[in-house]
């Protein structure tokens, strides 16, 4: 799970919609993310995001901060290289459940370094959008990396390993 997250630059974040016509329905949206600078030892395992209240999924999160986040090796060259369809379990994907929280001042520097090292364009995004750093607070993890069903990984297990 740590390996997959660290090698993905974006994920599908699902919220419960608050938008007219979709209220209460699942709503998935793509977000750039990072758990740390690229490289073998750069990942903290914490998915950081750069968000604005103008974004519709963030508006959903203001009402209900619970969400799920999916990342997959299909986002990297790995699956194509091995001839795996993105739905093939050997093209591993991870589903995180938890909540989105704004990072505090002491963690903002870490989040900034993690995100801007992978997504340098973010630094020039419009200042009047009031961007802020947030993290995905992981409570449950499901790993699909082989045939036979999901594996459940606890956050404690997840954070105890390096990618």
TrEMBL record:
Top-level division of the source organism's lineage: Eukaryota
Q: Where is the CREG-like beta-barrel domain?
A: 1-160
The signal peptide here is none
Where can this protein be found?
Answer: Secreted
Cellular component terms, GO, for this chain's entry? Answer: cytoplasm; endomembrane system; extracellular space
Which Pfam families does the annotation name? CREG_beta-barrel (PF13883)
Keyword tags: Glycoprotein, Secreted, Signal
PANTHER family in alphabetical order = CREG1 PROTEIN (PTHR13343), PROTEIN CREG1 (PTHR13343:SF21)
**UniProt family annotation:** Belongs to the CREG family.
The protein, known as: Protein CREG1
Q: Which organism is it from?
A: Merops nubicus (Northern carmine bee-eater)
């Amino acid at each position: 799970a740590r390996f997959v997250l660290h090698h993905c630059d974006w994920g599908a974040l699902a919220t419960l919609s608050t938008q007219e016509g979709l209220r209460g329905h699942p709503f998935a949206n793509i977000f750039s993310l990072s758990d740390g600078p690229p490289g073998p030892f750069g990942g903290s395992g914490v998915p950081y995001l750069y968000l604005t209240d103008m974004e519709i999924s963030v508006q959903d999160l203001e009402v209900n901060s619970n969400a799920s986040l999916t990342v997959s090796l299909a986002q990297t060259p790995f699956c194509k290289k091995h001839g795996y369809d993105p739905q093939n379990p050997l093209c591993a994907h991870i589903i995180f459940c938890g909540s989105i929280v704004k990072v505090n001042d002491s963690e903002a520097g870490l989040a900034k370094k993690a995100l801007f090292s992978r997504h340098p364009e973010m630094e020039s995004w419009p200042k009047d959008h009031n961007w802020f750093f947030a993290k995905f607070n992981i409570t449950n993890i499901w790993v699909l990396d082989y045939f036979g069903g999901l594996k459940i990984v606890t956050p404690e297990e997840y954070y105890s390993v390096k990618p």
